[in-house]
Write a structure and sequence with these properties.
The chain has 316 residues and is α/β, with parallel strands linked by helices. 53% of the residues lie in helices and 8% in strands. The protein has a five-stranded parallel beta sheet, sandwiched between helices. The mean pLDDT is 93.
Length: 316
């Protein structure tokens, strides 16, 4: 029988005590017989549990908004948005980052997702990766982090060493930091400039934080990236005017967006898109301001990509 070193045993005991205090890890004895329930009853219960997540997120909207304003300000001056987490939290960050180029035509280097254990950990668990504080620092150093960047640490427990170390290291380098967790008084929130603690309570399956905690994190990340992009002029109203038309569906969507923004006929929309190399924002400006493609490009450049500002400049 293999013995456990005394130091490891002590650390394991401390961790068990710590987890016992976290709501995300709490055991629900009333669900001890859930495996005996009909499928529909389990589904109804989980659905009811999920419905509470939006209320938990709503209670943290002021903190979320403050963090987003900070993110937008940094990115407006050329900074990057970096997500860092382990397991489900890391995968959610990578998912959000990967959606930004096709949705908002961002450079893949502008919004980055880091996961403990590297790319392999996206589909396969990497043992011990979440405990590697040195790996978090190394991953950020590989990005040559600057004071213009933002690092968002994501951890349901709020104690994951990789996420906490990433936030502490980023903050020491002068970057803006956000700590997103699902427990109160978390180490992650305490380490960050902006702490966001969305407390969703115990999970249906004890400790399975890919459930309500994961849903809460996804909702907050949706807000961070989407509202930041709105602030950066990546939309016109609620239209995705920076969408990258890289396939047939997106080309059809681009046509529809130009039509909705301008009210122009299909023929005029097609001409505008052709003249502007498929750029939605430029095409809208061409049609609404009655300018040619080179002028539209110049106006948008002067307006730092904000379509409304470019339209105002064209009308002046």
């Amino acid at each position: 029988m293999t013995s456990v070193p005394a130091a490891d045993a002590v650390e394991s005991g401390r961790l068990r005590e710590q987890l016992a205090t976290m709501t995300t890890e709490a055991y629900r004895p009333e669900l001890a017989d859930i495996d005996r329930l009909p499928t529909l009853d389990i589904a109804r219960f989980m659905n009811a549990e999920d419905a509470t997540v939006t209320t938990a997120v709503a209670s943290r909207l002021p903190e979320i908004a403050a963090a987003i304003d900070g993110v937008a300000a940094r990115m407006a001056r050329g900074g990057r948005l970096v997500y860092a987490g382990a397991g489900t939290a890391g995968r959610l960050g990578i998912l959000d980052a990967s959606e930004c180029p096709p949705t908002f035509n961002t450079d893949p280097a502008q919004v980055v997702g880091l996961i403990a254990g590297g790319p392999t950990a996206v589909v396969n668990a990497v043992e011990g990766a979440e405990d590697r504080e040195d790996a978090a620092r190394a991953d950020l150093d590989a990005l040559a982090l600057t004071a213009d960047d933002v690092v968002v640490g994501i951890s349901a427990s709020g104690r994951t060493p990789y996420a906490v170390a990433a936030v502490r290291h980023a903050r020491a380098l002068g970057a803006l930091t956000v700590g997103l967790s699902c427990n109160e008084d978390s180490a992650l929130a305490a380490a960050a400039d902006h702490g966001i603690e969305v407390v969703v309570g115990p999970e249906t399956l004890t400790g399975s934080t890919r459930l309500k905690a994961g849903t809460a994190q996804k909702l907050v990340l949706n807000m961070i990236s989407t509202i930041t992009m709105i602030k950066l002029g990546k939309t016109y109203g609620n239209l995705m005017v920076d969408v990258r038309a890289s396939n047939e569906k997106l080309r059809a969507r681009a046509h529809r967006i130009v039509s909705l923004a301008t009210g122009a006929r299909d023929e005029s929309v097609e001409t505008a898109l052709a003249d502007n190399d498929g750029e939605v924002k430029n095409s809208i400006l061409t049609l609404l301001a009655s300018v040619d493609a080179p002028t539209a490009a110049r106006l948008l450049q002067d307006a730092h990509g904000h379509l409304r500002k470019a339209l105002e400049a064209a009308a002046a």
